[in-house]
Amino acid sequence: MKTLLETWMTPETNRWAFTHVREIIPTAKVARGNSTFELTAAARSAVGPDTPLRHSGVPVEKYLESTATDSIVVLSRGEVQFEWYAENTSADAVHINFSVTKSLLGVLGGILAADGAFAFTDPVTKYVPEVAGSGFDVGIQSLFDMAVPLAFSEDYAMGDPRMIEYRRATGWIPGGSEGLHAFLPSLERRAPEGAEYHYASPTSDMAGWVLERATGRRLADLFSTHLWTPIGAESDADLTVDAHGAGRAAGGLSCSTRDLARLGHHLTIDRSPVPEGFVRDLFTGDAARWRAGAHIRDFPNGTYRNFWYVPDADAPVVCAVGIHGQILYVDLAEGIVIAKHSSWPTPLDDEMRTVQFRGLRDIAAAVADGRQ
C-alpha cells in the first residue's frame, strides 16, 4: 500500500490532503499575532449561490463545483460579499496554496527590502555564496521576476529526472534527504540571465533562501512577523520544510481562505505591511519577456513582477496563481478580493483555468455593479 506522501496530490486523496498537509509533510508554524482584522459581512451582497455568471449564465454554486472549489471568500473594501465552503471543509481549515506562496514571498521580499535588509539590485551571492558559478549566480531581482532561464523543466508529470530530484529535496515525495540547500546550487542556466521569462519553482526557493540569509531568520518566522501579524490573521499558517528545516518558499504555505483574502485586502488599501510603491511596481514587468515565455494563455497582454501576475497590463488587477486551482484575485481599483482554494484532479488544466479565471472576473464585476 502506498503512503500518503506518495499519493497526497492524486485525485483520490487530494481534497482531504490539501487541508491536512501538516499530517503528511513536516511543517513550521507561521504564527498569527495577538489581534485580528475582523471581516464583517456586507449589509447587502450582489453575489449568492444562485447568481448567474455574466458570460456563461451558470449559477455561482455550479461554477464553484465545476472548478473543484474547496472554499472561496469574496471581499469588497474589506467586507465579506460572499463566502462558500464545500462539504467537509470549513472556515478554520488551512489549505495549501501551492504557488500562491510565491506571491506572498514577493510581498515579504518587498517589505524586507524597504526595511533595508537587502536590495533587489544585490547579487544573490552576497548572501548565499554557495551558489557562485551556478545557475543562480544572478541578481536578486532576476529571481523575483522569474528571469533565470534554468536548465530545468517544471514538469508536473514528473518525467524530468531533475524535477523528481527537486521534489525529493523538498520532502514532498519519498526518497530525499539532501534538502533544498544542497539541491539548488546544482542547477545551471541554459541562457543568459534576463534573456527570457522562465517559470521554475526552484527559483523562488532560491529567493526564500536569500531572505533567510539576509535576515538571519527562518522563513516561517519572517512570514509570521512581517505578514501574518500585520494583516491581522485569525489563524496560524503552516510552511512545509525539508529534512533539514528549510522552508518551501515555492509553494509550501497553507492558510485559511479568509486569511489569504485578508492579505489581498491589504494590497488594495496601500497600507502596512505592504510597502509604499510595491503595488505600482508590479505593473513594471517586462512585457516582451513575458510574451516570449508566458505559460498562462489567458494572460496574453500580461506581465510578471515580484512573483505576481498582471493578467492585463492595461487593467488594475493582479493575481497569485497556484497549481490544482489556487488563486488570489485582486482588483486594485475596485477594492475587490477573491481568494479561492481548490482541489483540481490534475496540477494544470488549461480549460478549467480559463473557466475559473472568467468566473472570477464575472464575480468581481457583479460585486462592483451591485455597489452602484
Summarize the structure in words.
This protein has 372 residues and is α+β, with helices and mostly antiparallel strands. The chain is 32% helix and 15% strand. The chain has helices spanning 4-7, 14-17, 60-66, 100-114, 140-144, 161-170, 180-183, 201-215, 219-228, 257-268, 278-281, 287-293, 350-370; strands at 27-30, 40-41, 69-76, 79-85, 95-96, 237-240, 253-255, 303-305, 308-310, 317-322, 326-331, 336-342. The strands form three sheets. A six-stranded mixed β-sheet has the order 2-4-3-12-11-10, with helices on both faces. Strands 1-6-7-5 form a four-stranded antiparallel β-sheet. Strand 3 and strand 4 form a beta hairpin. It is globular, with a radius of gyration of 19 Å. The termini are far apart. 49% of the residues are buried.
